[in-house]
Amino acid sequence: MSKSLHQDNKLVDTDFDRNHVWHPYSSANPINDNYAVKSASGCEIELTNGQRLIDGMASWWSAIHGYQVAAINQAIHQQLESMSHVMFGGLTHGPATELCRKLVALTPEPLQRVFLSDSGSVSVEVAMKMALQYWHGQRRPQKSRFITVRNGYHGDTFGAMSVCDPVNGMHSLFSDALPQALFLPPPPAGFDAPLDSAWQQEVAQAFELHADNLAAFIIEPVIQGAGGMRFYNPQYLGFIKQLCEQHAVLFIADEIATGFGRSGKMFAVEHAGICPDIMCLGKALTGGTLSLAATLCTNDVAETVCRSAAGVFMHGPTFMGNPLACAIANASIELLLASPWQQRVHAIEQVLTVGLAPCRDIDGVADVRVLGAIGVVEMKQAIDVATLQARVMANGAWIRPFGKLAYVMPPFVISQQQLQQLTDAICKAVEPV
Ligand SMILES: *Cc1c(COP(=O)(O)O)cnc(C)c1O
């Protein structure tokens, strides 16, 4: 085999892609090629074959402002003029301190300390390590187990994976290597559903029974994302927060998908009026431009972590606080705050509600649900992803279904017309042939 080292970035070699490049959750022998992208701007992705697709995914929750955003591109260029990166050990810089100042101001008041990292999964590892070191600091090291609900998703690294849904997360593959978390049934479905006292009782019992060994409870507030796109009543969060306080268990809110407005509130915990001890942020943090994540915690957690034998918090990624990523996050947050994001999310919610409603009458559709800028069509059977995707693309839109779910979480700046085209494309695509 000949090896050429020079390739134009603009060319997409799909043969090479198929034979050498891993994609998310993909086979080494994929049946279908990945679609080659030439560019993305506004709310559209342009393929190399010239086809333009309305982006229903916001690149997995992240591109809330769409693509090629002038203010963000300008922030990149400006930051490049001083530095793209310096190490964060022993050094600090404006982009990072400014970002942490913004995050402290934006999140619930007790969250005062920020740990920056590279990706959502790492921010969850960091949160879990904080919880473990916290109990070492309290001289209660036996509190080392995590408690969570089924249908969760918290990332793909080992700690994060151990608190993902055991079935969706294929724990059977990794069971010997994974810490054994304690799993509760998922919060009963429905944002407006009345509280289910049987579920609450079961949860309360688990806390009572296991509190001596529990370090922290971790959950995606209000919206369970990749573990099933489920919405639940925010009052359950208040209920669990109370149990956590009563039984000395830390509360970790994973806002990686829900943070920065997606649910209609800046952070989904605001629906419940609670403040977690630790909060994870990622995805939309840089408006979908670079990988960056943050773990916030209270002063109490931070101080106690540092009373553990180590005396410090034991984590420090190479690219921690990357100035370029921080500068982008600052621009993205400023852009979000200067925009009428609440009205936009509310308007998206209304168009999705109306636009996806016809799916309810389609054979094979089990449920249609909308919350904030998220729309979900749940089928009765597992979706043939390639076929459904091709049908949606034939109608000019891009989505990425999984399991029984066809769902959208578009950029907040999507126009009403684009959004209607998106919901029309989904309605047509889920109709039986
Ligand atoms: C995507 C996601 C993660 C993992 O983030 P990565 O950046 O992919 O590592 C963790 N938790 C939730 C809720 C997510 O949606």
From TrEMBL:
<comment type="similarity">
    <text>Belongs to the class-III pyridoxal-phosphate-dependent aminotransferase family. BioA subfamily.</text>
</comment>
<keyword id="KW-0663">Pyridoxal phosphate</keyword>
<keyword id="KW-0949">S-adenosyl-L-methionine</keyword>
<feature type="binding site">
    <location>
        <position position="316"/>
    </location>
    <ligand>
        <name>substrate</name>
    </ligand>
</feature>
<comment type="pathway">
    <text>Cofactor biosynthesis; biotin biosynthesis; 7,8-diaminononanoate from 8-amino-7-oxononanoate (SAM route): step 1/1.</text>
</comment>
<dbReference type="InterPro" id="IPR015422">
    <property type="entry name" value="PyrdxlP-dep_Trfase_small"/>
</dbReference>
<feature type="binding site">
    <location>
        <begin position="317"/>
        <end position="318"/>
    </location>
    <ligand>
        <name>pyridoxal 5'-phosphate</name>
    </ligand>
</feature>
<comment type="subunit">
    <text>Homodimer.</text>
</comment>
<dbReference type="GO" id="GO:0005737">
    <property type="term" value="C:cytoplasm"/>
</dbReference>
<dbReference type="InterPro" id="IPR015421">
    <property type="entry name" value="PyrdxlP-dep_Trfase_major"/>
</dbReference>
<feature type="binding site">
    <location>
        <position position="153"/>
    </location>
    <ligand>
        <name>substrate</name>
    </ligand>
</feature>
<keyword id="KW-0808">Transferase</keyword>
<keyword id="KW-0032">Aminotransferase</keyword>
<dbReference type="GO" id="GO:0030170">
    <property type="term" value="F:pyridoxal phosphate binding"/>
</dbReference>
<feature type="binding site">
    <location>
        <position position="60"/>
    </location>
    <ligand>
        <name>substrate</name>
    </ligand>
</feature>
<protein>
    <recommendedName>
        <fullName>Adenosylmethionine-8-amino-7-oxononanoate aminotransferase</fullName>
        <ecNumber>2.6.1.62</ecNumber>
    </recommendedName>
</protein>
<dbReference type="Pfam" id="PF00202">
    <property type="entry name" value="Aminotran_3"/>
</dbReference>
<comment type="function">
    <text>Catalyzes the transfer of the alpha-amino group from S-adenosyl-L-methionine (SAM) to 7-keto-8-aminopelargonic acid (KAPA) to form 7,8-diaminopelargonic acid (DAPA). It is the only aminotransferase known to utilize SAM as an amino donor.</text>
</comment>
<dbReference type="InterPro" id="IPR005814">
    <property type="entry name" value="Aminotrans_3"/>
</dbReference>
<feature type="binding site">
    <location>
        <position position="400"/>
    </location>
    <ligand>
        <name>substrate</name>
    </ligand>
</feature>
<keyword id="KW-0093">Biotin biosynthesis</keyword>
<dbReference type="InterPro" id="IPR049704">
    <property type="entry name" value="Aminotrans_3_PPA_site"/>
</dbReference>
<feature type="modified residue" description="N6-(pyridoxal phosphate)lysine">
    <location>
        <position position="283"/>
    </location>
</feature>
<dbReference type="InterPro" id="IPR005815">
    <property type="entry name" value="BioA"/>
</dbReference>
<dbReference type="GO" id="GO:0004015">
    <property type="term" value="F:adenosylmethionine-8-amino-7-oxononanoate transaminase activity"/>
</dbReference>
<keyword id="KW-0963">Cytoplasm</keyword>
<feature type="site" description="Participates in the substrate recognition with KAPA and in a stacking interaction with the adenine ring of SAM">
    <location>
        <position position="25"/>
    </location>
</feature>
<feature type="binding site">
    <location>
        <position position="283"/>
    </location>
    <ligand>
        <name>substrate</name>
    </ligand>
</feature>
<feature type="binding site">
    <location>
        <begin position="120"/>
        <end position="121"/>
    </location>
    <ligand>
        <name>pyridoxal 5'-phosphate</name>
    </ligand>
</feature>
<dbReference type="GO" id="GO:0009102">
    <property type="term" value="P:biotin biosynthetic process"/>
</dbReference>
<feature type="binding site">
    <location>
        <position position="254"/>
    </location>
    <ligand>
        <name>pyridoxal 5'-phosphate</name>
    </ligand>
</feature>
<dbReference type="InterPro" id="IPR015424">
    <property type="entry name" value="PyrdxlP-dep_Trfase"/>
</dbReference>
